Amino acid sequence: MKDNKFLFSASTCAFQIEGARNLGGRTDSIWDEFTKRNFTIPPVGVAKREINSIEVAADFYHKYKTDVRIMKKLGLNAFVYNMDWTRIFPWDSTTINPEGIKFYIDLFEQLTNAGIKPIPILYHWDTPMWAQLQGGFENRDIVEWFRTYAKTCFKYLGKYTDTWFVNDENSTFTQSAYLSDYLPPARNDKTAFVKALHNLNLTAAVAKEEFELAKVAQYLNKDAILGIDHDWNPAIDYEGDQNSVAVKQYNEWWMKLFLDPNLKGQYPQCFYDYIAEHKIKFEIPVQDLEYLKKHKLDFIGWNYYRPIYVSKNEHQDNKQKFIAPPSESHLKELTFVYPKDCDYTKWNWLIDESRLVSGAIELSQRYGKDIPIMIIENGMGDFDDKSQSMIKDYDRIDYLKRHIREVLKAREFVNMIGYSLWTYCDIYSPSGGYRKDYGLVSVNFNSPLRTRKPKLSYVWYQNVIKNEGKELEFDKKYLENEYQKILDEWDIFYQ
């Protein structure tokens, strides 16, 4: 990266926002199939999982020009976008969809012209159905299918940005989709998990190889960097011993297993032990390890929402101590607990910024003291009150304030290059559907036009970006007056 300016960004994801799922030449992915097959709508206002249609979502596909105007007004330096492999390769691994790649060229041009750096993530849980029908990430051939996709993106989009990611949240994806049926493809099979994880790691390595070749071909700036985005929730030992077996075991699995292969070119011992313990018929070829080591990624994206309390002891469902029953992990001597004497969102997600700085230091100590780190997701899902003219999401502002303060503090200790909040506008959430509000901008999902409206947090973040994070506290009266001014000028070009 040439520009050393700290990036204030927002992030979002194609299958959660884009819509137009079968327009512009696109075909189904595993998320299309999953949402159609598992469609379920709990009662209004209940914090339970909603699996709803993503056919239209926030209709970003048709409204991206409006959204870029909104982002420009917000003052974003960058916009992180989890792209859609299926839109570019909807039929097979070799035939480029011209409408699909042109959509992303147009989007990236709009962002660049608005002074907003596009930061693409090539893959986020959304495998094309044509690939899944051939085994998906369990099929070694997917590595070469992904190579073609990555190569195409670098060729046509490389001139717009010098900051890229390959994969996003491999931990949640592989464990919830291959050791469980919570996410598609809902395999719930240990062998499938091992194969999928290894092939995901290889897709990152082939992407890095193509990334370097794209620099030689001058599709990419020679200083461009390619990273991996990881969803590690730093552990807090419930018994108070941060050197406990539980913490060490957790970090082996939830940090090292998902970062070491693409940043160090090796697997931690726990992966080999897991394969042996479950008698899985799978060996990691020596040449694969050599290839991973040869094509290591450049930096870390980190999705920090919350830490996780871990314990080596079993715990009963004590309603005096916990807000939810303790949950066993798939590992021995490791239980997750949810202490009652902590702050939580309305969706029972822990609010605790205390491990952001120390966690960033842990990452830099393991993967290089100068390795760039960027917060790619951080935000709060809520039930926003949209019944009044002003959407006063003060709880979200407080959450963001607490976390951004720690991000900026972390810059004293690590090479923290940017902060991207989750998310730009309200979206489809895999854990909450359309009832879980994450955005700085509200989307009216009851309107066929999917009209946009800013929330108070939009005004707050706008002011934070203006002063480059030097001031995070703003008088309520000032914020609401500024908010009213924005609402007064929020004409059809922003809706």
Automatic annotation (TrEMBL):
SUPFAM superfamilies: (Trans)glycosidases
Superkingdom of source: Bacteria
Family: Belongs to the glycosyl hydrolase 1 family.
Pfam families, per database record: Glyco_hydro_1 (PF00232)
GO cellular component, one term: cytosol
MF (Gene Ontology): beta-glucosidase activity
Annotated signal peptide: none
Statement: the UniProt record of this protein carries the keyword Hydrolase: yes
InterPro entries reported for this sequence: GH (IPR017853), Glyco_hydro_1 (IPR001360)
The keyword Transferase belongs to this UniProt entry's keyword annotation: no
Keywords on record: Glycosidase, Hydrolase
GO biological process assignments: carbohydrate catabolic process
Name this polypeptide is given: Aryl-phospho-beta-d-glucosidase
